[in-house]
Amino acid sequence: MTTATLAPRTPAPRTLSPRAQRVSIVVAGFGQNIVLTTVTTFILVYLLEYAHISVQGLAVVTGIITAAKLIDAVSDPVMGSLVDMTRTRWGKMRPYILFSAVPVAVLSTLLFAIPDVSETGKLVFFGVCYFLWGFAYTVCDVPYWGLIGSAFPDSAERTSVISHVRAFGAIALGLATLGMPWLALAFSFSGETTATGWTIAVAAASVVGMGMFLLAFFNTREKAQGERERLTFAQLFGTLWKNTPLLMVLLGSILGFGRYIVQAGGAVFVVIAYGNEGYFTLIGAAIIVGMVLSSFLTPLLLKRMSGKSLILWSSVAGAVFYVAMYLVGFASIIAIMVFIFLTGLTLGVFLVVQTTMLADAVDDIERRTGVRNDGISFSTLTFVSKVMNALAVLVFGAFVVVAGYQAGVTVTPQMQNTVFIAITLVPALSCLISAVPFLFYKVGRPATTLRT
């Protein structure tokens, strides 16, 4: 009698439904944006009001942030190339998502835990932590956007996911913007907000946010790559430089950095203009409501016009709203909220259409060259975001330095007007200039069809 030898069974991988993957990607982006918003929105006000950095020190801080952001931005395509050359049993993007979550959470907390030492010591501590934070965030962010392209290869499904990621990212932005000052106050355990309160609040937000981000590792699957030949750095970057539509999106986005100035400097502006940090919750609420509404409505607009037309119209409308806000002035916080809401509408449209146009450009270069590399292609999205944030912080910080503001000084009307120009006329000019490269955007199939 013959006895059959049974080979040990390999457990089958857990099957995930498309809906589960879509929800996980959106929730992961939501958590990631909680952490990102906390750092980018409140770091300047924390340094000025709670770490007591002087106006001279603020100039150093803006230089540090700008240098770090630019270095991070340049490293994004390199990170994208590393992703494309990675081969593991988890895929090429998910491992980076897994191992970057904890460093991002820890470093985000340290940025709001400046020690009580000399100002030079504070600046050195901040500079080291900020550079490390930027590197860690690159490692988590580039693979996340590449994962969207890999997990959702169908163009219509992918753009639908992108619109929801942007919409819920705006909601996360709103919750962090509105909630973090109150959370910091609650953790201060006193009648006023303290530096320690901010440290604890940021730690809590970072743990929760990056915990949600890990869903992108556990509840997604990358598209099988087969036995594709590994491309070299030269081939990867060569394909990138051949993608003219993608380059136009990048240039137009960078020139539109002014769209981010309200987020970068709004918390400082309300202190200078109104003497009340809490007013930023009102301004934050206005811009977030506008962004969320337009993020959900943009797919409907894309059914009626091309992405190119929509982004051009939103740029012009944004410039008009910013100029009108300056002419009306900031005497009424209600008027400011109305205009911030309107600019939030244009920003939400820009963010969804920008990503959709980039994805279409990636599809276009694949049709023309036969090469598709999610890592380096979608790394350009994080590249432009970091450059835009860096320029927004640099320009706003320069206006604050010119105005001569620092904690404890007597605020003058001239000081207020200088900072007000930074969040109105500068973004208006930026919106208009950014429209020019988008005039030259052209792909074989425009972004006009989306599933909602």
From TrEMBL:
- Asked whether the keyword RNA-binding is assigned, the reply is no
Coiled-coil regions in this chain? none
Keyword Membrane annotated: yes
Pfam families, alphabetized: MFS_2
Keywords from UniProt, A to Z, are: Membrane, Sugar transport, Transmembrane, Transmembrane helix, Transport
TM stretches of this protein: 23-47, 53-75, 96-117, 123-147, 167-189, 195-218, 246-273, 279-302, 309-327, 333-353, 387-407, 419-441
Q: InterPro entries in the record, alphabetically?
A: MFS_2 (IPR039672), MFS_trans_sf (IPR036259), Na/Gal_symport (IPR001927)
- Please state what the protein is called: Sugar transporter
Q: What organism is this sequence from?
A: Microbacterium terricola
**Which lineage?**
Bacteria, Bacillati, Actinomycetota, Actinomycetes, Micrococcales
